[in-house]
Amino acid sequence: MDLSKLVAVVTGGASGLGAGTVRNLVNSGAKVAIFDLQEELGTELAGELGEAAIFCKTDVTDEASVTAALDQAVERFGYVNTLVNCAGIGVAEKTMGKKGPHSLKSFSKVLEVNLIGTFNMIRLTAERMSENTPNENEERGVIVNTASVAAYDGQIGQAAYSASKGGIVGMTLPIARDLSSVGVRVVTIAPGLFDTPAFQGLPEKAVDALGKMTPFPSRLGKASEFGCLVNSIIINPMLNGETIRLDGAIRMQPR
Fold first, then answer.
1. Which family does it belong to (predicted)?
2. What is the spatial distance between Cα 186 and Cα 57, in angstroms, rounded to a whole number?
3. Which ranges constitute the DSSP H helices of the chain?
4. CB neighbours of 57 closer than 8 A, spacing ≥ 6?
5. What confidence score (pLDDT) does residue 117 get?
6. What is the pTM of this model?
7. Phi-psi bin for 138: left (phi > 0), alpha (psi -120 to 50), beta?
């Protein structure tokens, strides 16, 4: 798909991996709708990027909120042919800890945002994509999801997070098969340790130690590197139904 003809929705686009993706896409000639609940950050980023970007306050778990945001994006740019799902949350909580069993509420909340929110965005955006005029490769759209290496190497305290990200990995192929009839590709990225707001507030030594867990390059990944892979997926029509680890060869230990 031609990046210069791209109109992308990026969830969680106001910060972290989402913001890196937004910047990469705009720098490549695309137009982007930033879907996020962080109004101040999202508005600031859209203002920085000018006419190529718009901020739409969006709750990915709410059908009415997503529908209204998609309407706003289409009204501004004419259509949507790319979705990048980066919105997500996490908790650190053992199945059975010193304070008792894992909270069912927090477990459900992580799945609601990470897994159900991703699916909600896919189903509603795919409907819009199905109405697009296909390009020379018969494509009408591309969807890129964000899982995590925790889908495979979940650590102690990551039951909820790993379950949510494992669900995204598991639904990638069947959704790609579902959407093949309308010419929409679906690919998932499973990043390792990346420099995101999740690490903000940690001491510099702790961040350096985390980065050195990655075999090579021995550092935290950069949001721009995640965005670079998103661009590669978009432009390569044979990438479909697959999950790609972007992790510097890391395999997470139990803790």
1. Belongs to the short-chain dehydrogenases/reductases (SDR) family.
2. 24
3. 16-27, 39-49, 63-77, 104-111, 117-129, 150-153, 159-179, 204-211, 223-235
4. 36, 37, 39, 42, 65, 69
5. 98
6. 0.95
7. left
Sign of CA dihedral 46, 47, 48, 49: positive
- Residue 211 structure tokens: 């980065």
Rounded-to-10 torsion of CA 145, 146, 149, 155: -130
Catalytic residue, chosen from 55, 77, 119, 161, is 161
Architecture of domain 3-87+121-157+167-246: 3-Layer(aba) Sandwich (3.40)
- Mean pLDDT, consecutive 10-residue stretches, the chain (255 aa), reads 93 97 97 98 97 98 98 98 97 93 96 98 98 95 97 94 98 98 98 85 75 92 96 97 96 87
For the question of residue 161 being annotated catalytic, the response is: yes
12-51 core/surface letters (b: 16 or more CB in 10 A; e: else): bbbbbbbbbbbbbbbebebbbbbbbebeebbbebbeebee
Q: Which helix (H) or strand (E) holds 100?
A: strand 100-101
